[in-house]
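Flagellar FliJ protein, Marinomonas arenicola. Tokens?
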Amino acid sequence: MKKSQRAQLLVDIAKRKEDAIARQLAADKAKVQHDQDKLEELKEYAGQYESERNLLGLSAYLTTNYQHFVDRVQQAIKQQEAAVGRSQQQANMTMRGWMEAKTKTKSMDWLKEKHHKQELQLEDKKEQRQSDEFAMRRFMDNIR
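Tokens:
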């Protein structure tokens, strides 16, 4: 097996790994978007309840219960912000992994091309040598 063919196998393996990481990156980005959407929904929900509390003019007891509920929603918002941060961090790590895999694939492809060019040069030299040899034989046959 020629070096370029062996290198092509390495390129194929690297490309499959790059593609797998790219799929994971897409999934990670979708998770970030989902977590951000959920966070926005919680913020809207909290904002609605906060504005309703001011409009309702509740008694002290109901205001306390209402405030506890709003506090729980605020706590859920903080937890969701942390979830967004974690999913964004995971997406960033996957992005770095994908970039590294892409660089490796390009390197392997460059190496394959280098070997292929060397093989073509050797083949050209071989053909030239054979052509020169053939021409020399004809010349020698004509002299005789």
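Residues 3-109 form a domain with the Helix Hairpins fold (CATH 1.10.287.1700).
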